[in-house]
Amino acid sequence: MKLRIFIFSLLLSSSLFGEPASDIAAPQKRTEVLDLARKLLTTKSVETSVDDIARKNPFNPLPVVVESSGPDKADSPAPVVVGTSDRDILAAIAEGVRPTGTMKLGDTQFLLFGQKKLKVGDVLPIVFQDTSYELELVGVDRTSFTLRLNKEEITRPIKL
Questions:
Q1: Quick check: is 102 in a domain?
Q2: 144 assigned to some structural domain
Q3: How far apart are CA 35 and CA 30, in angstroms?
Q4: How many domains does the chain have?
Q5: Strands (DSSP E) found in the chain
Q6: Pick from 16, 20, 75, 144: most CB atoms within 10 A?
Q7: pLDDT tens profile 84-105
Q8: Which domain holds residue 132?
């Protein structure tokens, strides 16, 4: 009796499931899939310069150059003439330096320019009247900061 049930179940299972399907797709289907893969893997050439890529890279270690915001050219056609002493130049540049705030991390005080953080002793490159200057950050307080150009220093309030 057990043998009859076994043979019956064996015949029934083979008739229900039939012949197993092939694991390999038809050649026409494979070529369609391969053509789609080639289309997706082809890269388009992007025309960008190295400078554009470096400027857009958030991890680029290049220093931030802050342009001094003097009077607009439309308001006054004549360029502003600044005295030639370091004190006059520093005073004119310091008016255009506008930090966004300060931050204290441990014992170190930072001056913030957006995402850029400067601590005491860091150099801030500035382009003013087509001449580049390097201002040294001498001091940072909660409400003010001090800049140095050569031997001249000026303290400015942080205006938010």
A1: yes
A2: yes
A3: 9
A4: 1
A5: 66-67, 101-105, 108-113, 116-119, 123-128, 131-140, 144-149, 152-157
A6: 144
A7: 788 888 888 888 888 888 888 8
A8: 58-69+83-157
